[in-house]
Amino acid sequence: MDIQQLKSSKILLLGELCLDKYLFGTADRISPEAPVPVVKINEWKEQNGMGGNVKSNLIALGNEVTFIHNEEPIQKTRIIDSRYHQQLFRLDREDTPVARLDVKTLPSFKNFDAVVISDYDKGFLPLHVLGDISDKAYTCNVKLFIDTKKNYLNGVKGAYVKLNEFEYDALVHEDKSNKYVVTLGSKGTKYKDTIYPAKEVDMFDPTGAGDTFLSAFVSCFLTTENMDTSITFANKCAAVSVTKLGCYAVTKEDIYE
User: For the chain, which terminal residue's Cβ has fewer other Cβ atoms within 10 angstroms, N or C?
Assistant: First the structure.
């Protein structure tokens, strides 16, 4: 798949937004107050994670994205040893469950090529809301792509559902009208009885790789409507992502390399 052939699609993205903060520093001594390292911060950066990372990747692949998310983002702060890029500590701030999405406030699905759901199961998209979105997408004949942490999807029909191996094994109800794309980490991706091998790379950080896979799969499938091509392309994009620190929006230059 030549990345230049990807068409620009109009996508409605629904999901939780997270703010990822990275504090880089050096730890040269142990605190006299407790047996913990003292970290001197010398650099920091912020990135959008969860649904925000999906948005960044979809845009990087040339799509036009309308993102509807929780008002107050979840926050994850990571302290990183800047010499070895080793994570020393992570602090999460989650005022969960977040306020749920009101389906009545959504724009018309007919204005979009696809609806993409990035559901980290923090309360924004409870099961009945997913069901309502599924019905709405079916009525409007709009493709629906779902990445979710839920182990139950009763009422969700006709969707392309991306899950990792653990999530798929824990799935309680498997509707036959859905198409399940199961990522297997370094082993690749499984669809039906076929395993699509992943490109071998030196993994640096798996953070956000699932978001990158979802974005690449959606972008390619909306262009080709071919599962084989789309999964292979998504595997390559995810392989790029795991060689980078934190959430990363894959670029066209990355794919060419």
Answer: C
